[in-house]
Amino acid sequence: MDRLADAAHLMIVSDLDHTMVDHHDPENMSLLRFNALWEANYRDNSLLVFSTGRSPTLYKELRKEKPMLTPDITIMSVGTEITYGNAMVPDDGWVEFLNQKWDRKIVTEETSKFPELTLQSHTEQRPHKVSFYVQKDKAQDVIKALAARLEERGLDVKIIYSGGMDLDILPQGAGKGQALAYLLKKFKAEGKSPNNTLVCGDSGNDAELFSIPEVYGVMVSNAQEELLQWHAANAKDNSKIIHATERCAAGIIQAIGHFNLGPSVSPRDVTDLSDSKLEDFDPAYEVVKFNLFFERWRRAEVEKSELYLANMKAVCCPSGVLVHPSGIEKLLGDCVNAFRTCYGDQQGKSYRVWVDQVLPTQVGSDSWLVKYKKWELSGEKQKGCLTTVLLSSKGVSVPEGLTWVHVHQTWLDGAGPTDDSSWFF
């Protein structure tokens, strides 16, 4: 990744459904805990990779439904597509590699002869992936017969069965594991091999991730039997792979701590955010902490105390200005005063705040420019803005925290509210 000049401190490669994203957690709390941990401690020097069986279409749908971070790299369609950055730029070298001994037309011809196979939706059919549903009791017989037919036709393919119903046919060189191996080889060629890599999964199509040498691995507590059986047969003596006792993203946090890969206490797990044990100024942590306090204030999860407001005013420059996404300029002190009117207005509601892609740049001996995306989720509606903050350490100590000098916000495309006044800060 061009964003990092040096090797990543940590690279997390995670499946999405039922691993990073818990569909049985309506509050998305484990995901939000991971988000806060990543943005406060890892975004600046590490890499986040999502490796999903979803097609680009379904992946983008999930991003609209859940409070997900933006990954540095996205591996989709069971390892057949690799893209980079916000623009999701495809890796052409990976496409060329997958074209070897692959003919999609032959695959569709042969699979049409199996009435047990039901074609998945058109969005899940990709250039290097043909996907079906098949009943669990018929899967193994179908896989065996289909593999033989495709081999007779001169193809070198891989058939992956996962989730008790999904059957994917890919080029032999494809898959989540091979895609990761390809990335690691690229990083090594650039002299940027990650210091540590943690792979995370819950189902059969994640098994390949755990086969990559020298990576750490976590099977989340809710991992499916097919992955646990693979582990028992292939990796039960590998001390670098654990079966977490926590579900989904909480299990990923647990693994970070278990393997001592870095900080593993999410800011969301800290009750008193003012009682930080920072040894040096940390702009990313300041941003995460401020926005988390704002959520707790509106949910009435902290006391309505003038002391809190006084402390917030103390970290705002007296002449500091907020440029609201609507274009209106306000003094930061006035914005803090306005907090009195919104205390508890989201109490008992599905209201959450999170930040994404928090990237600080030191622009002076005592100042930082921090860019990030701030998101608010209220019910099923998401609002988001691109935020740029100027922070200063001039005349303050680490326990006092950085001074907020200037804040500028603009609505993200399609993410603004119908009423600008509902956006406080």
CATH class of the largest domain: Alpha Beta
Radius of gyration: 24 Å
Q: In CATH terms, what is the architecture of the largest domain?
A: 3-Layer(aba) Sandwich
| Proportion of residues in helical segments | 25-40%
Hey, roughly how much beta strand do the residues contain? 25-35%
Q: Please give the number of β-strands.
A: 18
The CATH superfamily of the largest domain is HAD superfamily/HAD-like
CATH topology of the largest domain: Rossmann fold
Helix and strand run: EHEHEEEHHEEHEEHEEHEHHHEEHEEEE
Structural class: alpha/beta
Note the main sheet: 8 strands, mixed
Give the SSE map.
Blueprint: E1 11-14, H1 29-41, E2 47-51, H2 56-65, E3 73-76, E4 81-84, E5 89-90, H3 92-98, H4 104-111, E6 118-119, E7 130-133, H5 136-152, E8 157-162, E9 166-171, H6 176-189, E10 197-201, E11 216-219, H7 225-234, E12 241-243, H8 248-258, H9 283-298, H10 306-314, E13 316-323, E14 329-331, H11 332-342, E15 351-364, E16 367-378, E17 381-392, E18 403-411
Helix pairs in contact: 1-8, 1-9
